[in-house]
Amino acid sequence: MENKCKNCIVRQFNSIRAMSKADLKKVSDSKISKTIKKGDAIFEEGEKLDGVFCVREGVSKLSKLSSNGKSQIIKLTGRGEVIGQRSVIAEESTNLSAVAVSDMEVCFIPKDIISTALNSTPNFAIEVLKQMSSELKEADEGIVNMAQKTVRQRMAEAFLFLKKNYGEDEDGFLRLSLSREDYASVVGTATESCIRIISEFKKNGFIKTSGKKIGLIDQKIMQELF
What we know:
The chain is an alpha+beta fold. It contains eight helices and ten strands. The chain has helices at 21-30, 85-90, 111-120, 122-148, 151-166, 180-187, 191-203, 219-224, and strands spanning 32-36, 41-43, 51-57, 60-65, 71-77, 82-83, 97-100, 104-110, 207-210, 213-216. Helix 1 (21-30) runs antiparallel to helix 3 and helix 6 (180-187) packs across helix 7 (191-203).
């Protein structure tokens, strides 16, 4: 029963909630459940996708490789999000790669099921458009942040984002633990600069660290930074 899409709470967080019962049954009958290990790729940049991935558990990073070979993390995707949707609908190769930041459970939904639902269920098509519009807004805000905010401000914002969206463990550290390289990629700076700012935040009593784990001590100060 838990494998039936109609009983899956995750779909309430994305456009699939607007599918008709008939289309939802097609998804249930054709989807493939996959376990993705931390560090493994869900898909690579430039790949032609035959379907989309609905995240049941875990987190992935969507990143873009620049001409100089440097990777830039564009977005983190978690439970309930659908990835690969834009490429499938536009019938284009992916412009981003998706790699698991933690162990993940995803459901692969074939392209033809998505296409049929878009043509047969207007409410689903509208929900997909709303989701894409939201992603465009996030991308616009990301561009503004890169242009107008300092690296320190972007770092503080990243820590607060991770706390808000993924929570903390029992010891007060961010539940989603990223590498220093990933933090640098998220905020758009060199790894050395990222390490220096984290050390500065720790020295000032804003955060605490244990290995690569980071915990927020003074959230109010972090918010005031940006």
